[in-house]
């Protein structure tokens, strides 16, 4: 009789073979991917619900005339057309532009200088850094009230210090020609500690060996900064400029601080565009027009930021 042989079964994969290791590797990668998406999900959901959705609704509301009682009347692009003849809006944009081109470079230079000053360790360095950063952890409302108290005409601490020079009668917040400059100084004082820490983080990425080599080759302090530190610090500088520009236009110091200090006065000399949008929405109940203004400001910021990225390659000017 012919004997039949049972078909050979495929050999089982033994534990520890490459096949099993590959399966385990794929499973581990899948678990890591699930964990990563789980960690990202709250931020993504938050951005969609609290940023993306309000932006879409803002573009929709800008097409309506909305009063404080919730009455909607479709007006199309009328709110956008109104901007061209709004003299107060143009004045607020001028104030905001003056503030930005003054505040951003001054804060940049002061913060970088402080970072260079405190980058080296010495006794009490922790206290010095904390003292510079302390204003940034205080509420801007408290900062505004503090400086308002210091700058009270004839009775404030600043007036007392200036009295020997015959300047006790100077009203820093009540004089149109001085109010905006005072606002810039207070803003720089508030933000310099935060930007100093950002620059310190960037300076830690500068290899010490490069500075030592330049020093051995006879380079002075300015030459080491110009040719060694500054090129490596450009990405950090780019972040500081973009961040401070956005903050100067739409940040808390563009509204909270100026609202507490001067409420836009005197003679609208400190009326920023954000403060003007607030007044249109909650003082004059022109919510539709205020929303249209907001969309235009956001669009301008996006365009300016995009141009800055494109022209400077994210701060890497010299890379091909």
TrEMBL record:
GO terms for cellular component: plasma membrane. It is found in: Cell membrane. Residues 1-25 are annotated as: Disordered. The chain crosses the membrane at residues 34-64, 99-118, 130-150, 170-194, 232-255, 287-311. Pfam families: BPD_transp_1 (PF00528). SUPFAM superfamilies: MetI-like (SSF161098). Keywords: Cell membrane, Membrane, Sugar transport, Transmembrane, Transmembrane helix, Transport. PROSITE patterns: ABC_TM1. Signal peptide: none annotated. Residues 93-308 form the ABC transmembrane type-1 domain. GO terms for biological process: transmembrane transport. This is Multiple sugar transport system permease protein. It comes from Kribbella caucasensis.
